[in-house]
Design a protein that fits this description.
This protein is mainly α and 299 residues long. Helices cover 72% and strands 4% of the residues. It has helices at 3-34, 41-57, 65-88, 96-118, 145-167, 169-179, 181-186, 191-217, 225-238, 244-265, 270-284; strands at residues 123-124, 135-138, 141-144, 219-220. The strands form 2 sheets. Strands 1-4 form a two-stranded antiparallel ribbon. Strands 2-3 form a two-stranded antiparallel sheet. A hairpin with a 2-residue loop joins strand 2 (135-138) and strand 3 (141-144). It is globular, with a radius of gyration of 19 Å.
Length: 299
């Protein structure tokens, strides 16, 4: 097994892991700001993928990656608002399992609606209409424009999110709510509005992740929700559930582990390698990949 082959698998793993990182960032935002886990995050990602499919399919929409990213952010973000109103808003002070059950019902509803609207078959995504089928040789390995596009989109989105959370007034509000909801409410913060914005942002970012997923694999299906949901949840667990940067790192790690699992043991071992690593990390680092443990969160 040559160094070029290993480097190629590393690039593939980083590409796939970057997509998983967006899934995890969206999930961590929801868990961190809203304070509740969700089991319909995969369906939001699926909706983002189908928005990419329709952006390419409809001739009157410009097939531009920026336009596509905006559409794939806005539509899932609107779905996120609906999910928040139905599944979170009324249960902010209730036992968490109530909202979790609601998100299970929402997941089933979104899957069935997607099958009615988009069909039950896997749809091909014409990636070449958005991203040129070019490649560049680096250390004997050809890196395609799709991988480069994924890296650029993920980096730009992470920078924009960091600027929003750290440099804007409402970003600081979201961070305050994520750290201690009761204290933020006592300081005059509208907690319900802040949690809705957190849900909106988390679902919008997940939608862009769904767009990249559809472009990377050149296909999208109404049934991708559960598999990608598992990866989003696992990456977020690796990051300690509410730590955005560490959750993103968890997504990248899972993507790399999956690809090396395929390279060394075949596609049947894809999930085994990634989740064996997850189990080992949680056995020895219960707080995930965060160094120094996590803080207790006031609710």
């Amino acid at each position: 097994m040559t160094a070029a082959f290993i480097f190629e698998q590393l690039i593939n793993g980083l590409s796939q892991g970057s997509i998983f990182a967006l899934f995890a960032i969206g999930y961590a935002l929801i868990v961190g700001v809203v304070g509740m886990a969700t089991l319909c995050h995969g369906e939001v990602i699926m909706i983002g993928g189908f928005m990419a499919f329709f952006t390419i399919s409809l001739s009157w929409i410009p097939t531009n990656i920026i336009v596509m990213a905006l559409i794939c952010f806005i539509v899932p973000a609107l779905v996120g608002i609906v999910i928040h109103i139905i599944c979170y808003e009324k249960f902010l002070d209730s036992p968490r399992h109530i909202s979790l059950v609601c998100t299970i019902g929402m997941s089933i509803l979104l899957i069935n609606l997607a099958q009615i609207v988009f069909g039950t078959q896997t749809q091909g995504v014409r990636t070449n209409q958005v991203i040129q089928p070019r490649s560049f040789e680096v250390f004997g390995v050809f890196i395609g424009m799709i991988e480069i596009t994924i890296f650029i989109v993920v980096i730009v989105l992470c920078i924009l999110l960091a600027l929003f959370l750290n440099k804007t007034k409402y970003g600081v509000v979201l961070k305050a709510v994520s750290q201690n909801r009761k204290a933020a409410a006592l300081m005059g913060v509208n907690v319900k509005r802040a949690t809705m914005v957190g849900s909106l942002l988390g679902c919008g970012i997940a939608g862009i992740g769904g767009m990249l997923f559809a472009l990377y694999y050149s296909s999208i299906s109404p049934l991708i929700g559960p598999p990608v949901m598992i990866r989003a949840f696992s990456a977020t667990v690796l990051g300690g559930m509410s730590d955005i940067s560490m959750s993103a790192l968890g997504g990248i790690v899972i993507g790399v582990m999956e690809n090396f699992g395929i390279a060394f043991a075949g596609s049947a071992m894809r999930d085994i390698f990634a989740f064996m690593f997850l189990i080992l990390v949680l056995l020895f680092l219960p707080e995930g990949l965060r160094l120094g443990g996590g803080r207790r969160r006031g609710r």
